Amino acid sequence: MDSDEGLDASLAPVRLSDRPIFDEAFSQLREPVSDSCFASTYVWAGALRIFWTSIDRHLCVFANTTGDLTMLLPPVPQPGAEDRALPGVVGACFEIMDAYNARNATVERSRIEYVSDEMLERFSASSATLSATPMWGDYVYETARMIDLAGGPLKSKRHARSRFMRERPDHRVEDLRDEHVPACFELLDAWAQHGDEMHEGEVSDVHVGTDVLRERDRLSTRRAIEHRREIGLTGMALIVEGRLAGFTLGQPLTHTQAMVLVEKADPDLPGAAQFLFSEFCRRHWAGYAEVNAGDDWGIPSLRFTKQSYRPRRLLSKYVLTRQPVPVMSTSIPMDLPVRNPRHTVGADAPASESASTNAPVTVILRRGAASDADPIIEVELSCFDAPDELFTRRQVKRLIDNPRATVTVAELDGRVVGWAVGLVRQHRRSRSGRLYAVAVHPSVRGRHAGRLLVEATIDALKAKGVERVYLEVRHDNATAISLYRKLGFLPTRDLPGYYGADRDGLRMRLGAGPGGRLAPRRHGHDAPGEGSLFTQLP
Questions:
Q1: CA 265 – CA 238 distance, rounded (Å)
Q2: What gap in Å lies between CA 250 and CA 286, rounded to an integer?
Q3: Cα(465)–Cα(404) distance, rounded to whole angstroms?
Q4: CB 239 within 8 A of CB 173
Q5: What spatial distance separates the first Cα and last Cα of the chain, rounded to whole Å?
Q6: Which of 189, 280, 493, 507 is surrounded by the fewest CB atoms within 10 Å?
Q7: Under a CB-based contact definition with an 8 Å cutoff, are residues 34 and 253 in contact?
Q8: Is there a contact between 260 and 292 (Cβ–Cβ < 8 Å)?
Q9: How many Å apart are CA 103 and CA 4, to the nearest integer?
Q10: For residue 88, what is the domain's CATH number?
Q11: Per 3-state DSSP, what percentage of the chain is helix, strand, and coil (rounded to 5)?
Q12: 435 has which bridge partners?
């Protein structure tokens, strides 16, 4: 069945002829975010399956990306709209979403995304009672600083730009024209392939594979290039040695702020991206105080890049639901991923003398249940001191209920003594898994409980069709790295600053076996003489 079947009859696809309607509505906003313009809506309309309607003089934009219907923007007042109408409009929008989601997903997935502070104030002033959860916000930079790249914090950017200009003296920039389009498409495809290779296994904060997001970006960028004039975009091409080496597209958002909608540079030309961004600001946006580079999609590597340009401020954005949902919050320190996989240091190293005896012990592994939340929290408190490293009871329960997660607990004499979490990532053509968390109570370390939990998590992910399993671990956690190597994980990439300043990470992958599936594992270490007996229950 086509995923758009069953949509409300009032919803229409976004067309170029709709631009005046969208422009008129968005012009009512005092401070629009990068999503609040027709160009953004139109270029993403195909990749995100965007539809719209007007309800009581409010522009209502919906997306049907993953089989659930959501609002891509809050209802935007059109000329003549009354504030008192907003609660009724919101109610009508949720009815439209609920009717579709009840057939194809669950009504709990009905939500309103990309809500700005300005629109949040309108909701607060009305009687519409919804829960707001922060999501990733827009990065806004001082245009003059982006042109000069002056100051110590931007020294590396400035040097990269200078190196590019020095090593590529024949470079030039020119307005993006029709003759550049075929080369733009070729560069875009090469950029996507390079990204898939460099960021293999990377996932966003909401567990979507970045290759999926990258493909959506590729499709939307093609549309932006093809229809740049009709949707009001300014384009610039970078030429090196007679060939296209980069391109960028943007437009003004307000009289003081411009937006960079698209920027793609040849990844094999060091400094090209820094030069392209800086030169685009100089040539086209020098008359605007600020430049908006959009959000980071909840992707750790993209977040790192956008932070490295030292934004002047962030434009907050929110998700509105009838109940809170777990989404990336910009109130969390931005140099840290929201949740890194934690690994109890020394989880399988000898613990105290009393805990490292060789007496056989039966460790029972089973699926986590809602009733395990409190015992799991006790394990957490025994393993981690820093509050930002601890799961909350609410997070534990959500993981247990999450169909994309597999939660396994270890029991000893009827007591929960450890737990592990795996997450399923959906990619374009396959599924991968992530070892998200492992924690073992100190009293049972040295008895292979950590290893058994990891192996059970791998098995559970494999049963869900996962072909590769990734994890991230502190670079200085030699014990955990040694364990993962023994289980077949291999290092794939260093992650500088992944756990914060001067706290580097390492990404590891359990490779695919013959036929593209995880290879069978041997369990010889589980022999009774090794100090533990393993019982796997459903």
A1: 8
A2: 13
A3: 12
A4: yes
A5: 34
A6: 189
A7: yes
A8: yes
A9: 12
A10: 3.40.630.30
A11: 40, 25, 35
A12: 422
